[in-house]
From TrEMBL:
GO terms for molecular function: acyltransferase activity. Residues 125-261 form the N-acetyltransferase domain. It comes from Streptomyces polygonati. Pfam families: Acetyltransf_1. SUPFAM superfamilies: Acyl-CoA N-acyltransferases (Nat). This is GNAT family N-acetyltransferase. Transmembrane segments: none annotated. Its EC number is 2.3.-.-. It is an enzyme of class 2 (transferase). The keyword Acyltransferase applies. The keyword Transferase applies. Keywords: Acyltransferase, Transferase.
Amino acid sequence: MDTEAVRALFDIQMRRDAAPEPGARVERFAGVVRQTGAAVHDWTGVLWSDLDEETADAAIAEQTRWLAGPEGAGREFEWKLYAHDRPADLGDRLLAAGFTPGPAETLMVAEVAELPLDGQPPRGVRVETVTDAPGVFLMAKAHAKAFGAPAEALHARLLDQLTRSPGSLVAVVAMAGGEAVCSARMEFHPGTDFASLWGGGTVPEWRGRGIYRALVAHRARIAAARNIRYLQVDASDDSRPILRRLGFTPLGVTTPYLRQG
């Protein structure tokens, strides 16, 4: 893979020229692209920026003013910073403006045609497609247990997305008997060469059995059937080595800088 070319394509299609998620809107300012979710629990933040030492502070101040206003009230706002974004000290400037950095993740991309598609879940585990509220509840329950964090906002977002635009994603849950042990989704981005993979966290007692790998393969098969060229993941430290073995290539590091409205 020509990593520089693919990263440039990702920056253009998925960040600079990004279409809004279902129900959201994308606004373009001088050097900044911001998405505002339809509801308070929807993702809101900066997708892309093209700034320098002279323009960065003013751009940050504009976003914090908006967040402090009536439309930003109650929202979690994320400035999604990539290591190749400029200026080089943009993270420090965000920190000084009251943003809090979250855990860094690795931007990874794979060509769907190069991925192994035959991965299957272990014995006793089945993969179910989620299309309704009970399935979303199971997804959120598995997510909360896997990541050790509340999943109420994820639960609300997925319910909204399945209602507003069910064709914009594929959501799945891995079941062991009646227990949800892993959940994941793939979101589609019409007009781009990419689909994105999210979730995949496995509850602690079921880790190390190939469930995460099986859910990647399951989604990759769907992507291949839809002639999607690339799959993109923001990979945690736990998932990065698995994805490397499957054929994903690191393109850089992304860090969420968060601020509450």
